Amino acid sequence: MADIDAWVWWLIAAAALGIPLVITAMPEFGMLSVGAVAGAVTAGLGGGIVLQVLVFAVVSCALIVVVRPIAARHRAGQPQLATGIDALKGKQAVVIERVDHRGGRIKLGGEIWSARTLDGDAVFEPEQQVDVVDIEGATAIVM
Fold first, then answer.
1. Which domains are delineated in the chain?
2. CB-based contact 106:135 (threshold 8 Å)
3. Contact call for residues 104 and 95 (beta carbons, < 8 A)
4. Per-residue confidence at 19, pLDDT binned at 50, 70, 90?
5. What torsion do the CA atoms of 55, 60, 66, 69 make, to the nearest 10 degrees?
6. Spacing of C-alpha 87 from chain mean position
7. Which residue numbers delimit the NfeD-like C-terminal domain (predicted)?
């Protein structure tokens, strides 16, 4: 084991840190792996063990401190794509047949839907605009 250069050990450490990155999808392991590669480069250029460990620590910590918050902001800022009935909630529709608490018909997204009012006392006449607040089965709940 004494015959193996220090830079090879650093590359082995980088690969070993890459394995949990792939298994757990935790980006911190990738940042530590990049730090190990920096340690390997330092060893390859003839830096001593103290400098190698220092470069590993500084690069790894810098990546975690700088890149991790940026990645977290990016991940949190991505809007979720609404599909199916979730995409219909909040849309406007046009009343085709009178809609009250017992039922009626609306045109929503180019399709005819059964509908009923959210408020039991509300009544919507044909050609009125309504807002879809929920979908229950095949019935749109409107207000």
1. 6-77 (no CATH), 85-142 (2.40.50.140)
2. no
3. yes
4. very high
5. -170
6. 18
7. 86-142
